[in-house]
Structures are given as structure tokens and as C-alpha cells.
Amino acid sequence: MTTPPPTITGTTRVIPIIGQPIRQVRSPDLFNALAARRGADAVLVPIEVAPADVPGFVAFHRTWRNSPGFVVTVPHKRAVAGLADALSPRAARLGAVNLVVRDAEGRLAGDHLDGMGFLAAARAAGFDPAGRGALVVGLGGAGSAIVDALCEAGLARLALRDLDAARLDWMRDLVRAAFPAAALLPDGADLSGHDLVVNATPVGMGGTGGLPVPATELATLRPGAHVADVVTHPAETPFLAAARARGCTVQTGPAMTAAQMEEFGRRLGLFG
């Protein structure tokens, strides 16, 4: 069942979400339903913007007085970070943003909240990363933000996996520089030593049946470990289903997205 469209008036606060392509985003449905439940006069609107047009969009947004900010999705997160007036420490570390907040003078402050959404969902499921160990598979926009948030929250041990060797090296260097207390572990086929295993790749999306790690590795998951996926469709991926069957707690992609929508609303000043 789809969410009824919000009522838009002259007082409605308009928040664009920019990307290319944009038709796949689920954030407008989720955010607008949340805003309606909270009684916020606000609407999140998808806008397809080509990379060459991002600077023009950002310049225009400085003058958009009934917009408190905008959301950024692929492939614009790094480009917009370079155009903001200020960045949060996490956005500066990652070199990317997914939320920009506009002040009354048109100044733009960028932040990256994928990791914050992940942490909120993990804690709601009963998992606290402080002092624990994790494997994160996939170090793109979401995965790198999750790594950053986990380390900031006191993760003690971390293994990383990505097919892109340069991206893997970049993430390891970031962790060493910003979070020296987090021990970087070699990536291995035995998952039993991890308290948390995260799939931050698209593998499993759309009901393809794919697994982000080999089935032989899944068989080494320790019962009671927390297993998370960023994939939003299906909500329970084959990866999560296999983890649940082994007695693990699981965290879905929609849970992370819902937690992030809450954070977007707070940062934009739309609800407490």
C-alpha cells in the first residue's frame, strides 16, 4: 500500500533529494510518511540532477528560502562535499555528504548520516559496538560511513573487505589516522570471531538470491552475533535469512533507512 501524497501549500518546507538516476530512491515515501505522522509541514521531493549541473543546483539552493536543506544520493555525495561551506568532522573524513542544511543566510553545512542511521538501528536491535569486533563487506558510500560510525562509537576490532584494492587501502588509512584504538584485523574466511558482520554491498538486492560472502563462511557465523544488511529490497535478504537460521540477530536495510529519516528530520529542524 502506497503512502498518500502529502498536502503541499505555500507554507510547506521543501527538501529536494538529488541524484542520477533518481527513480530508484525510496526515501521520499519513507520520509513523507514520517513527516505526516509527526505533523511536520514538509515534503521530500526527488530531483534528477546531472553531475555537470550540481554546482548550479547548489548555487540555486542558497537562495531557496522555503527549503531547510537537501539530501544527496549517488553519484553526487563527493561533489556536493566540495561545494558546502562547512563539513562535519565525519563528512570531512569521508570526503562526502548525504545531507546539507541551509541556514537563514544561505550558508550550507554538509554531514554524512548513513553511519548514524546504521548505529541507531543497531542499538534499537540491542547491539552496541563499543569494545566489540566487526567485519564490514563493501566500502562504498554506505560502507565507509558505517565503518567510520562504528569506530567513533568505540569498536575495538575491525576487518574490512572490498573488491577495490585502492578503496580498501583508503579505508584502512582513514581508520589508522582517525581511530588508532580500533585494531585492524586481517580478513579471513572464519566469521566466528566477529560480533558484527555487515553487508554494505548491493549483493542480494532485488531478490537475486546472491550472498555477499561464500556459503562456507556463513556456516562459521557464531550464534548470537549481530548480522546487518544495507539492502532495502527485499527487507530480509538471503544473507540475513541464513544468519537468522544460525541463531544470529539481524538488522535490515529498511531499519537503517528509517532511522536515518528520523535523523534527517531532526537535523533539518522539522521535528524533535
If you consult CATH, what is the topology of the largest domain? Rossmann fold
Number of spatially distinct domains: 2
The CATH superfamily name of the largest domain is NAD(P)-binding Rossmann-like Domain
Strand content: 15-25%
By CATH, the architecture of the largest domain is named 3-Layer(aba) Sandwich
Radius of gyration: 19 Å
- Would you identify the regions where 5 or more consecutive residues have pLDDT less than 50? none
* CATH class value of the largest domain: Alpha Beta
Query: What value does the average pLDDT take?
Result: 95
Tally of DSSP helical segments: 10
Describe the overall structure.
The radius of gyration is 19 Å and the shape is globular. The chain starts with 12 loop residues before the first strand and ends in a 5-residue tail after the last helix. Strand 11, helix 9 (238-245) and strand 12 (249-251) form a beta-alpha-beta unit. Helix 1 (27-38) crosses helix 10 (253-267), helix 5 (114-124) packs across helix 6 (141-152) and helix 5 crosses helix 10. The chain has 272 residues and is α/β, with parallel strands linked by helices. 35% of the residues lie in helices and 19% in strands. The strands form two sheets. A six-stranded mixed beta sheet has the order 2-1-3-5-6-4. Strands 9-8-7-10-11-12 form a six-stranded parallel beta sheet, sandwiched between helices. It has helices at residues 27-38, 54-61, 77-81, 89-94, 114-124, 141-152, 165-178, 215-218, 238-245, 253-267, and strands at 13-19, 42-48, 69-72, 86-87, 99-102, 108-111, 133-137, 157-161, 183-185, 196-199, 226-229, 249-251. The chain has two domains: 13-112, 3-Layer(aba) Sandwich (Rossmann fold); 115-256, NAD(P)-binding Rossmann-like Domain (Rossmann fold), CATH 3.40.50.
